[in-house]
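Thread title: Can someone regenerate the structure for this chain?

I was given the following input by a collaborator and told the matching structure tokens would be attached. They weren't. Posting the sequence so someone can regenerate them.
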Amino acid sequence: MTQPYRLWSQGRSWCDYEVATEPGFLPAIRSLFPAEWPGGGQQLTLESVLIPEPEGPRGPWSTSVRVDDRTVGYLGEEDAREWAGVVRRIVSSGFLPTTSVQIYGYEYDGWDGIEFRPSVRIGLGDPRDAIPLNEPPFTPYTMLPRASFVQVTKEDEHLTPSLSSFRRTARRPLHHTA
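Best answer:
Regenerated them for you:
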């Protein structure tokens, strides 16, 4: 079984990217909700997997969004091209790229009976933030929560030697231990 790899580019709950919901995906999306609709709008917060499909119906950069082995949509063409390298690198390393998905759905009486309308959003963010620049340490370590800044005391003793090997223009997450 392939291990999941949580993308670093978004927090656990913020879903910033709307996945296009096409009619062909509606049965798969609806099957994620209870069979007996409880009424009103319903929201699910789950994990999604990004799967590269270079031979798929959407061209060589195609990336599907799957929840519980069901395809719920695809990244848009431009976004799929930007994310292809990241997603393929994670998959070729033996992992499955995962991120949060929020699915809002509602059923209503339509012209042809009960109809279902969903909105699918995933936490995608920026592909440059999805994978750290370096490998995690072999010794036990603790991940600090995402923040706009982290105060480090005596940073001159810890930070300078380890950062000297990285370009100053790089904008990517970094594992660092002291």
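Residues 77-92 form the longest helix (16 residues).
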